[in-house]
Amino acid sequence: MSWYAPGRRRERLVADPAQLIEFAGTAPKGWLDAWRSLDAQAQGIVRDLQPSKHVNGYQLAQLLWRHRQGPLFIGSSNIVRDFDLGRCRG
Known about the structure:
Structural class: mainly alpha
Largest sheet: none
Number of strands: 0
Distance between the termini: 47 Å
């Protein structure tokens, strides 16, 4: 690859899944189950909406904040802006 020059950059080419596991490691025990649980909670919140209603990011942020249980981690920039607009803090 033209962008990759061995020894000149930190990036490393990974050619197969075994190399990826060696390089990146594996998730902590229970990680996938935790994400599935959170996904089920989010799906439940969305199902609570009226079927004919379209939801925008701002409304979703308000719903997630209202139904959260404990700390809430948000990452991508748009949802962070939506939470800020809705004053979903504290």
